[in-house]
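Entry 14. Two folds queued back to back today. First construct below, sequence then structure tokens.
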Amino acid sequence: MTTRFDNLILYDGLGTRMEAASLLIDGERIAAAGREAQALPADCIIDGTGLACTPGWIQSHSHIALDGLPNMQAQIARDNTEAAVTASAVRNSLRCLKSGLTGVRDMGTAFDVSIKLREAIRGGVILGPHIYASGRVLCMTGGHGADFGIEVDGADEARKAARGQIKRGADLLKIMATGGGQSRGMKAGVPQLNYEEILAITEEAHHAGISAAAHAQGKEGVMNCLRAGVDCIEHGVTLDGEQIDRMVSQGTWFCPTLMGLWYVIERGTDAEIPQYVVDKCKIQAETHFSGFTEAYKAGVKILAGTDAGTPFNFQDDIASEFRMMNQLGMNVDDIIISATSSPAKAFQAFDKTGSIEAGKWADLTFVEGDPKQDLDAFKRVRMVYKMGRRVYEQRDGRDVFLSIV
């Protein structure tokens, strides 16, 4: 079965924009795009006038089993069974699809639920995006993430836990290098896992051919990660020239998760977010947003991710991260790259997805309007294709999901 879209505004995920463009899908894959596709026959031809098409968006930092409730720690304590965590993850998978996401990198779930979710989606048991799963996070005893992670102390324990996650099928290893904004009783940026522990985890990840990503919010913790060769810094928060220069020289990815901080500050304690969370996020905001701008200007490789699941930071709200990135200086072409080809490269999936090129999976997001002219177009998702199948469409104002059978 071949389908051809005509009259599209087409963003290829690599920095090129085409008008009045065509796109031909053949089964699971893109057969042709642009002028090359215009003259090719198809079983079904769809007029895409008024629509812009990009590669399917990839969320680079989510906790897919968390729902964005005001008190994140309270949800973690409440959902203390694998069944409860799984139910939230399955529900949120549909929310991801309808917001334009064909891929999600999950950065920590209890019970390794994200690994099991990935397999259920691949097997056609449930409907959802491609999942890049870390499973449980690796943290120090009593540290940030201890309530849904694996606690380790010392390089040997860190190495063994890393090997265990690899055995369970993790696509990447998530390291909790510092304290965080959502954990009671600790400063957000204090170092937790030390350099030797981080190095042991990173070495095991690289031996297995997967990446290591680190929650790192203070300078000492970030520098420990950079010295250890961690592939991606999550949050950053206190980036300065030394950290940025090293990230550029090493080719380190950076996922800033801007909305995770913004929503806490915007909603505050009046929305029942705990006072300690608001206080810590206000301190982080003094450097985080300006640090993102400086990192972008310097050429740090950016991944779009929201820290979805934190307070009021819902799984279907990647468009707000795009808007914030734009307000802080990132142009629309680079925003699209940060949500398409860049994460595909970072997650070792660029041979299959992340750009509109012949032979790639037909992972596609269609929005009403042109985001270069109207940034709100990112919020008007009208159709989503995953591996050539229309898995979501907005029909007469209703969300319609394709059956998995």
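Second construct, same run, same settings:
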Amino acid sequence: MVYACTLFSSSGGNCAYIRSGRDELLIDAGVSARRINESLHELGTDLANIRAILVTHEHTDHIKGIGTISRRYEIPVYAPFLCVNYIRKQFPESAPYLRENDAGSVLEFGDTRVTAFATPHDSCSSVCFRIETPCAVIGYATDIGYVSDQVYAALCGADGVVVEANHDLGMLRDGCYPAVLKKRIASQYGHLSNSDCASLICRLVRSGTKHIVLAHLSEENNRPPLALAAARGTLAGQGITVGGELTVRVAPPDGVCEILTAE
């Protein structure tokens, strides 16, 4: 059996949970260990059961809890080489548990296979993941400036995907952020807009994806109804209706959002 969900998803902190058979994994740990454990308890599990943490990149909203988790739970942390160096400096207590996991690397946890793919983002180094299990395939890609070939390869044909819908272009343009920050967010090494996310979703649905979670929404430059409207509208324009086997959800900033369950 496979179960996957987001626990936290915003610029304030990100973390996702995947259980495949007896193996339990986290993607990112961008909030405190206490908050992550509280969320895991709601699912009937605990940080003590987590086999590995897969880090996408070194920004604070993806690694905030690593130090405490390393000190208390001694969980292996897999991250790109340059991110490993950064995390080691920020959280020296994590050093014994850090493992390099650059783009192209493949990890195996029981029957679960995790492949890292490079993502375009303004960090030391950044990856997304394709998680293949005997029951289902999950794709996970946030913090992406544009949909590169590598990002699409990670998500294509996956049964369930988590994909960034960070900002509404109009809200970003008219918002209070300084011009330099607006430029960074909208750049090819920033974050994915609702419209670009919607275009990607159409491609993914045609590749066989049935369950989509829109993630990492900006609290300043987006709203869930806008992200959903962009996705549904673009799908409808291609003759694709959400409902039945096809689900599109928005991950809340704090709270469980199911990606998929499969047996």
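Quick look at the second one. The mean pLDDT is 97. Residues 177 and 220 are 9 Å apart (CA to CA).
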